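PT: before anyone asks, these are the final sequences, not the draft ones from last week. 925 residues across everything. Please model them as a single complex and drop the result in this thread when it's through.
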Amino acid sequence: MSLVESSVQFLFVALSVASVYLLVALGLSIVFGSLQFVNMAHGALYLIGAYVGLIVGFDVGFGGLIDRYGLAPLGLDLGFLAALVVTPIVVFVAGIAMERLLANPLYDRPLLDQLLVTFGVLLIFQEGFNLVFGRTGFNYARPGWASGPVLIPGIGSVSRWRIYVVLLALVFLGVLFAFYKYTDYGLAVRAGTEDTEMTELLGIRIGRPFLLIFAIGAAYAGLAGMLGGSLFGVNAGMGFGNIIPALVIVIMGGVGSIKGTTIGALLAGFVFAAVTQVWPSMATASIYALAIVVLTIRPSGIYPTGEIGQ
Amino acid sequence: MPLLETRNLTKTFGGLKALDDVTVSVDQGELVSLIGPNGAGKSTLINTITGMLEPTSGEITYAGTDLIGLDPFEIAQLGVGRSFQTASIFPELTVRENIQVAAFATEHGSFTVNFLSRRDSYDAVRDRTDHILETIELEDNAGAVAESLPYGDKRRLEVAIGLATDPDLMFMDEPTAGMSPGETEMTVSLIRELLADWNMTIFLVEHDMDVIFDVSDRIFTLNDGAIIAKGTPDEIKSDPAVREAYLGGEAE
Amino acid sequence: MSAEPSAEGDDDEPASGALETWDRIKHTERFVLVSALVFVAVFPWAFTSLPLVPNNLLAYDQLARLVLIWGIFALGFNHLLGQTGLLSFGHAMFFGGSAYATALFANHVVADPLLSVVVGVCFALLLAVVTPFVLLRLHTVYFAIVTLAIAQMLYYMAREPFEGITGGINGLGVDRSPLFGLLELGADIPGIFGALWGTYMYLFIAAFFVGVVVFITRVRKSPYGLIFKAVRENETRASFVGLDVWRYKFAAFVISGFVAGIAGGLLPMETYFTGVERLHWTLSGDVVMMTVLGGLGTVAGPILGVIVFLYFEGVVNGLDVIGGYWLLSLALAFTAVVWKYPDGLWGMITSVSSRLRSRRGDQ
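LR: through. Structure below.
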C-alpha cells in the first residue's frame, strides 16, 4: 500500500469517526449553549436512531420481550436507504417530545440537577432497550452501493461507506450553519447563547426557535445513531458509549459554538484514528487524554462562549 | 496617607471602556459615596478594587499594599469587606451559620487545618457571631434558614456577613435597594453606628439621594466610567456637571 | 440539595419533653457513634435472617459485608457532592486505584489485610492530591466530565498497557493472610456472635465503617463542615469573606478520595479479587445513584441508598419474572428522586416522621 493510499484511508477513518461524534455533539452543544441545559439524555436519541433505523430498514431477530411475546423478527424491511431517510424524521419527533416532557421542566434547575436527571433518563432508556430488544448486539446489513471500496485513480481504495458518512455529515453541518446564520430562528438561538438573561427577558427562550433547534439536534443525533450503528454495531449501551465522548468534545471545543464543536470533533476523530494505528487499545482513552490536556490549558474550551458553569 | 487609593484605573471590556482613568482616594474614618447613572461603572469600580476583576491598567493601594493581582480572599484578609447589591448569602444555612462562616475566616485566616476540631469549641468565633447578630438585630432569627427570611432581612444579613469579617474599610453596594422606608432608616442608623462606634471607613454606592446627602463626608460622581466630580454633598448638589449627567436627567 | 437540620433549631412543642431531649441528642457525636455501633451489630442479622421473611427475599452473608464497604464509598462520595457541591463522575479512580494498589501490595509484598488496605488508601490519597490541579479550576459539568475522563484513562491503562501487572480484563486474584499473622479473617466467629455477624472479616470491615462514620461526623462538626457548605451555597461570597476557596475544595476532594480509597482497599480483601471494571465509569455512576437515591448530604441517606441498591442487585435480581427489572426500577427511582424528591429516601422517612409529630402536636 502506498503512503498516499494509507494517508487517504487514515484521513477517512478520522473524518468518519469525527462525523459521527459531530452529528451528536452539535445538538448537545447548541442546546447547552443557548438554553443552559446539559442533556445526557441526548445519548438516548442516538440510541433510538440506531434501533429505529434497524426496524425501518430490516426485519430483525430481536431478543428480549419482543422475542418472548413472539414478535420477532420485527421490522418494516424497507431497506437501508429508506431507513436513512425515515430515521432522522422519527427522531426529530422524538426530540420534540423530549423537549416538552423532559427538557422544558428542567430549564430553570441548576446544571447539577439537569446532569443527574438526564443521566437517569439515559439509564432508563438503556435498560429499557436491553429488556425490550434483548442484550445482544445487532449489525446493519449495508447494500452494495454503501459498502466495499471505491477505487480513486492515482490514490488507491477507500471505504465507500466512510466517504458517504463524511459527505452526509458535511451536508448536515452546512444546513445547520446556514440555519444558524441566515434565519430569524437561528438569530434568536445565537442571541440566547450570547446573553441568556436578555433572551429570557424577551421571552424568546420558551418559544419555537428553541423547540425547533432542539428537535433538529435530535434528528442529527438520530441520524448519527444509524451511521454509528452501521460503522460500530448496535447495542443498548451505545447511548452512553457515545454521549460521554460527545460531551467531552462539546466542553473541549467550547459550549454553544458550532465552530468549536466542529474543531473538537475533528481533533477527537484524528487523535482516535492516529492512536488506533499505533496503539488500538488506547484509541478511546486518547480522546479523554486530549480533553484533559485541552481543558488544563483552556478551562473554558477552545472557543469559550457566554458564562456557562461560571 | 489615604487608606485606599486608586490611580488612573482603567478597565476595558472588548472595546468598551467601563472605567476610564479613575483616580480616587479614601481617608481613614471617612464615609465616601459613589453616585452615577445606571451603567456608569459603579459596580465595575467596586469589583475591580475588591479583586473580582483585573484592571486593564492603573494602580490600587490599600494601607500601603498593592492590591493588583491579589485574589478576593486575600484582599478580604487585609481588612477590606464588602456587601453585595443582591442578597448574596448562603441560602440553606441558618442565619447564625451565615455569620459564623465569616467569623471563622476572620478569626482563623484564609485556610486552616482544623478539620478534626469541633466548631462549638471556638469561643472567639461564637462571641463575634453573637455580637454581630446583636448589632444587626437578627438574634431572634438566628436559627432560621437564611432563605426563609423576608427580603429586607436578607439584605441585612448580607451586610452582617460583611461586618463579621471585621473590615477596616467596607464597600456597601446599594444597601437600601428594595427596602421599605422603615428598613432604610434602620440601615442608615446602622451605617452611623459603624462609623462612630466601629471606627470603620465606608465606601457606599447608593441610589437613594436622601441617604447619600445625609451620611456622606464626600461624594464621587461617575459617568461613562470617568469621575466627573468630587466633593462634599453641598458641592456636589450645586455642581453643574453632576446636575446635567445625573440629577437633572431623572428625578429619583 | 438540603442542608441537615440545624442543631439550634427550636421546636415549639412544649408538650413533649421526650421529643425535645431526642432533638438535642440526635445530632451529638456520641449518638452517631452509638447508632453506628448498633447498626453494624444488628444489620447483618436483619439483612440475612430476619424471621418471617421468605428465604428468597433474604440477603446472603457476603452482601452484608459489601453493604458496609460500599457504604464507606458512598459516604466518601457524598462528602464531595452532598457537602461541597462538587459532582464527580470519576470516583471509580479512587475505588479501583486503591483496589489495585492493595491487591498488588498483598500479592507482591505482604498479604496482611490491614497493611494492604493502608497502602491502597495511600495510593488513593496520592491521586486525590494530584488531580485537583487539573480539576478544581473547572465548574460543574466540566468538573464532572473531566473527573470521568481521568478515571477512564486509568481504566484503559489498566486494561491493556499495564495488563502484565493488573491482569487486564481477566482481573487479578488477591492473596490475604491472617491479620498480623494471627487471626484468619475468614474464620467463623464462635457462639452467638457468629450467628449475628458471621466471620471475623465482618468485624474487620465494620471497624473501618464505624471509624469512617465517626470521622465524617467530626469533619461535619468542624469548621470545615460549615465552610464546605458555604462553598457549595455561594462560592463567590465565601471568597469575599476571606476564605481560600480553592484550598477548601482541595481539602474536600482529598477527604473524599481518602474515604473512597478505604472502601476500594477493603473490597479486594473481601473478594480475593480485583479487576478493571472497578475503575470503569459505570462504577462511578453506581455510587452517584446510591448516594442520591438514599439522600444527599446526610450520613444515613447514602448508607440507606447502598442497602437498597445492593439489595436490588443481589437479591431482587435473582427473583423470577420481576428480577430482570432490578436495574430499570433503580434507574426510575433514581430519576424520580433527583427530579422531584431531592432529599432522597432518607428525606422521605424523616419528613414522614416530622409530619406525624406535628400532627400529634396539634391535638
